[in-house]
Amino acid sequence: MTELTQIxxxxxxxxxGIAAALNGGDRAVLLVAATKMNDAPRVRAAIAxxxxxxxxxxxxxxxxxxxxxxxxxxxxxxxxxxxRNKVNRIVGKVDLIQSVDSEELLxxxxxxxxxxxxxxxxxxxxxxxxxxxKSGIPPSALPALLAAAARCGHVRVRGLMCVPPVVVDGGxxxxxxxxxxxxxxxxxxxxxxxxxxxxxxxxxxxxxADAVAEGANMVRIGSAIFGRRQY
Length: 231
Known about the structure:
The structure is a single chain. The protein is of the alpha/beta class. It has a single domain, classed as TIM Barrel, CATH 3.20.20.10. The protein is built from 9 helices and 8 strands. Strands 7-6-5-4-3-2-1-8 form an 8-stranded parallel sheet. Helix 5 links the parallel strand 4 and strand 5. Helix 1 packs across helix 2. The chain is globular, with a radius of gyration of 17 Å. The two termini are 24 Å apart.
């Protein structure tokens, strides 16, 4: 089996894992390929095998691969921490920024999107476990950030995202995913301009099945598609 054929087989297995986690449910779950450190041919192989979007963590890597047409025909997401000084390089070039974690960042995205005459879709990143080394806002700060988004004319919040702790044992992240789903449901019923709770992005290679079982409708998977990264 060639490397590119293996990518297609891996994606088939992940789709099966998602279906099993749904346990007979028919909720659509979008599969985002986390393409960090994978070259353009490998990204294209994942797209050919049917991933729903490609997600990059680093602005420079995204720009380099985008210039090569690596993501042609597939929605593009930015899923890493977005530095303030790189906002202008990414707004308008991706379909979804999954990692908005402050009112300041929201304002910078709004300003750039306004200058380009477009509306940028984003997700709000929640620090679901309160880990100091990870980005995201605490759940208690979500209403204020959604209220700030409601005042924007060129940003549209499409849902929530989280990066929970590294999995130690199976099932350990389910309480965090359950908390995220409750936040998602609670805020789906509130009326803010420019806010619609369409996507709950949570779950990666080691815990995506638990995330789907707890209500995720978008998962971000890298290693299970491409193999473990060689840093």
